[in-house]
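User: For my dataset I need records formatted as: sequence, then structure tokens, nothing else. Please produce one.
Assistant:
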Amino acid sequence: MNELDEQISAYDQVSAYFSHMPMWPLALLALIVIVIGIYEVVDRKRHVRAAEDFRSTILTALSGLYPEPINWPQDIEAHLYARLPAMREAFENFRRHVPQEKLRDYNKDWENYCRFFYTVASDEKNPAAEPVSSKEQDPRKTFHTLVSNLLRHAP
């Protein structure tokens, strides 16, 4: 019986506390939780929209080259160079939406793409460049891998 009296007593104490406590702190806490929930929903929608914009910009800029190189131009450097400003802008805009723990990989993938652009694409245009040996990877496959690595950040 003693335990039952203690439980009732504890219940009475808690109910007495809430009956004498002002309600404005609980209302303020509820308002804060609602605002955080709304912010989270808006932020997720913004992230999804940014990912869609990034993906569509990259795919539009590289149509004919990615995912299948069906329209590989003779002057790949000029072709990619004309599309680089739009891709760079998409990269910069989406960077704000990449989680901090994945930002390093995202930047590294962009750097690898740019390195390909400035080295391999330029070498294809240069007739004095060495031909691709059988053990080196085809530039089209390398390009496909680099673009796929960029797009993996925008699911």
